[in-house]
Amino acid sequence: MTPLERAPAALAAFAGRDGLWLKREDLHELGMFKWRSTLPVVRQLAGDAVVTSSTGNHGAAVAWACKEVGVRAIVFVPPGGSPPKLALLERLGAEIRVAGHDLDEAKDAARSYATAQGLPFFEDGAEPLQYEAYEAIGDEILAQCESQPAVVVTPIGNGALAGGVGTALGKRAPGVLRVGVVAREMPVMAASYEADAPVDVPAGRTIADGLAVRVAIPLAVERLRTAVDLMLRVSERELAEALVACHDAAVAIEPSAAAALAAVPKLPEGDPVVLVLTGRNLDPAVLERARRDPDSFAV
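and the corresponding structure tokens:
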């Protein structure tokens, strides 16, 4: 179980909410939440090796799970990945392959390689076991919070995390407003949620690499239909400002996690508000740019 903590006063002031709480998935030894789902999936897939694709965090969690199970992890990554995340992959013994131009092209290469080699391919967000595993976070929030949350905010990359957390909340506390947050520059999951089907939308670039999904996963779109009540978009400037605010308050997270804080000013009234902080594997250059040149980020 990861901690649920009252937000530092500086963050509560930044967000304009007194009843602000942080679900600290970033405090796990891997620095992110994905360990919860990768171990059961890797155990199910078995084989000599597991192939996956990632911008870093999912790949690291798969590599960690593969070490636990005793199989190889082969991780396809797009070029220009976060150095700390790539270093973590290496420390965990992953075989790293750089392919494509973005995460979805790296995923296509990984899937083709797995098929050619006769190995299982682990697509993040496409395995039902992941959603079941992430329900534990929703259960923990309800057990740990001093009163029932009014709102729980979850960043959305491929959607599996919000799908699991929101499902658990819906079962046990249907009065909680379940909010998903995407990067405005990478809005495919929000657009697909609103269309109630996977759609194609123009994609830009985001500092929140964990939210940099260009192609919607059908299973995630299906699950989000009943697991999220409100979908919000945050700009790159909002992400950068929230990231700096978190680090100034000694909450050292990555931009994908800061998306939850960035969304708070857009929420309806009601406390407590719980933010799911997804990870801490940050490229220091991104934080430095956010401090030094906030005007360089799109509003």
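(Above: one complete record from the training split.) The beta strands are 4-6, 20-24, 49-53, 72-77, 95-98, 121-122, 151-155, 177-183, 230-234, 273-277.
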